[in-house]
Amino acid sequence: MTADQDILTIAADWKNQGLDVAIATVTSTWGSSPRPAGSQLVVDGQGRMMGSVSGGCIEGAVVKEALDVMQDGKPRLLDFGITNEQAWEVGLACGGKLQVYVERLD
Amino acid sequence: MRRDLLNEILDLKARGEPAALVTNLATGAQDIVTATRTASKLDLSITDLAAARQALTDNRSGEIEAAGQRLFVHVHNPAARLMIVGAVHISQSLAPMAMLAGYQVIVIDPRRSFASAERFPGIELHHDWPDEALEVLRPDGRSAIVTLTHDPKLDDPALTFALRSPAFYIGALGSKKTHAARLARLQAEGFSEADCARIHGPAGLDIGAKSPAEIAISVMAQLTAALHHRPTR
Q1: For residue B85, what are the contacts with CB-CB under 8 A and spacing of at least 6?
Q2: Residue B121: which of B92, B147, B90 has the closest Cα?
Q3: How would you classify the pairing of strands B30-33 and A40-44?
Q4: Domain spans in chain B, listed from the N-terminal domain onward
Q5: Contact pairs from chain A to chain B, CB under 8 Å
Q6: Arch. (CATH architecture) of B81-227
Q7: A98 Cα to chain B: minimum distance (Å)
Q8: Does the complex come out with an ipTM higher than 0.90?
Q9: For B151-175, what is each residue's pLDDT tens digit?
Q10: Minimal Cα–Cα distance from B188 to chain A, Å?
């Protein structure tokens, strides 16, 4: 069993338990992003999370977006990095840039 | 993501069949590409489908260049496999470490007192002779084989099989002297020097490892480097 397979299994388990579930996936990286494309974070309606999309720099912000995605069901493509004005709050300290796709598990 | 697609991905993984989930990042539309499936719901061009299948082969998730649309290909390949020959003390550390690193781990040892469920909780055990077990397991290009028994009766048949396989890593424990004698035996069996150079021996990076767990770390590090094509010698 791989780490990424674990995440999808957890997502399926949480959904089976009747929880709201969103999955965040790194789609693109530039520079020194800590986690490669395909890395995943699964979030439930209480903000509980497993997995990772960075070294812990942006997970908090991704969880916040994931909760919104669970509400309206619209997937989002999020930008993180030093060129983003958000970076002052939730950017990558290492200077990398990445995009994260957040979708609801329906 | 729809629940049925997630279940299909998990099923394909469990069956050991490489699969990619392709997402149109603009519309959220998703479907699965495998050797036989074409993500028909996405109506991919021949070029895009070829790019998605190349990502499967390369085991690399990422966006592909598609005409007018952004497509993300998420590769869900079966886990790489580590076949450990010898259910010895080092294996008791190496097996769980490799599982943490994402490998499917199999321990092979005909000596049942060594390869016991008590010593290897949760690990797949094979009690056949190593070459027979490997024949069943069919190591491929995402397989690694490490021999740890120190006993030529067990290690040599495993290495003979490993050298005829496309395994990405072959390692053999034993001192430099033991390894030289091993290579001489394999060459006497007809393997060339180049064949034998595939064997990492003594297995593991030179980090001064002494205890079984430390030796397992050194093997795990070398295995990791091999998986990511970073030569360590």
Answers
A1: B108, B109, B130, B145, B146, B147, B148, B149, B154, B155, B158
A2: B92
A3: unpaired
A4: 3-76, 81-227
A5: 60
A6: 3-Layer(aba) Sandwich (3.40)
A7: 12
A8: no
A9: 999 999 999 999 999 999 999 999 9
A10: 39
